[in-house]
Specification:
The chain is α/β, with parallel strands linked by helices. It contains nine helices and eleven strands. The strands form three sheets. The chain has a five-stranded parallel beta sheet, with helices on both faces. Strands 6-7-8-9 form a four-stranded antiparallel beta sheet, covered by helices on one side. Strands 10-11 form a two-stranded antiparallel ribbon. Helix 2 runs parallel beside helix 3, helix 4 packs across helix 8 and helix 6 crosses helix 8. The longest helix is centred in the last third of the chain and has 34 residues. The relative contact order is 0.08.
């Protein structure tokens, strides 16, 4: 069966050009010209990958990307975002909305297809490849590939495909500095020259899920000018970090409960 790609692009010429390229390369293509139709087709077909333009009528690409990530039926579908906005802040915004990759217009069709194939390889191989079909464990962390989940200090943390692969890459080399070029090659499947911001955004996402204070990381360290290092505690350090994580989670639970009470009180007043 051909992989199914959903192309959401409002420019007709661009839509037909990209669709023709994909079909010629052996993909089944569904097309939408606006965000509302795009979301409907994503739910109807459950495509293997979504190519999403940023500037769309009715519902813009960023909003649609966020909706797709919140919906359990579409949350794991890889998304390649297309846009004419190529600044670092624009890329960060795109990745923060949930995009897996980001390609700036105009682009070469050869590079476009390479990105598509890299995303499909990663999503297809993640639960099946030899490096990901076994549970990986060290100290306080266990990676469970079939659920894209990390057991972190005895608590399950749900990860996206990209977050799982990035954490897997770092865990395999824990205690070592991993160069950005190696991360891009192993996690993203290609070696772009200027996509260091891609890694930074996803490192930030991982820290938000794993660190007590993402602004002062204890575990996922930046080695300036060299890369990133996953430092896992052992021995006495492990006991100390376990205590810190327990205190952090208890504090977070109290804050969440307090926020819920305030929201309930506000609703009653209204």
């Amino acid at each position: 069966m051909k992989p199914c790609i959903l192309l959401i692009e409002d420019d007709q010429d661009m839509r037909e050009l990209v669709a023709g390229c994909l079909e010629h390369s052996g993909f089944d293509v569904q097309k939408a010209e606006d965000g509302i139709k795009g979301q409907a087709l994503a739910l109807q077909y459950g495509p293997d990958l979504i190519v999403l333009d940023l500037m769309l009528p009715k519902v813009d690409g960023l909003t649609l990307c966020q909706r797709l990530r919140r919906d359990e039926r579409t949350t794991q579908i890889p998304i390649l975002m297309l846009t004419a906005l190529g600044g670092i802040k624009d890329k960060v915004t795109g990745f923060n909305s949930g995009a897996d990759d980001y390609l700036t217009k105009p682009f070469e069709l050869e590079e476009f297809l390479a990105r598509i194939k890299a995303l499909l390889r990663r999503s297809d191989r993640a639960p099946l490849s030899s490096k990901h079909n076994e549970i990986l464990n060290f100290g306080p962390i266990t990676l469970v590939p079939e659920r894209f989940e990390a057991i972190w200090f005895e608590q399950a943390v749900r990860l996206t495909h990209l977050e799982f692969e990035l954490l897997h890459c770092l865990l395999q080399r824990h205690g070592q500095t991993v160069a950005p070029s190696l991360i891009l090659k192993e996690v993203w499947g290609y070696e772009p020259d200027d996509d260091i911001e891609t890694i930074r955004v996803h490192i930030r996402h991982l820290r938000t899920k794993l660190e007590p204070d993402p602004r002062k990381p204890r575990f996922i360290k930046t080695v300036y000018g060299a890369g990133y290092c996953l430092e896992l505690p052992s021995g006495n350090q492990l006991a100390d970090c376990t205590r810190v994580m327990a205190e952090f989670r208890a504090s977070s639970a109290e804050i969440a409960a307090s926020s819920a009470e305030i929201a309930a009180s506000s609703a009653k007043i209204q």
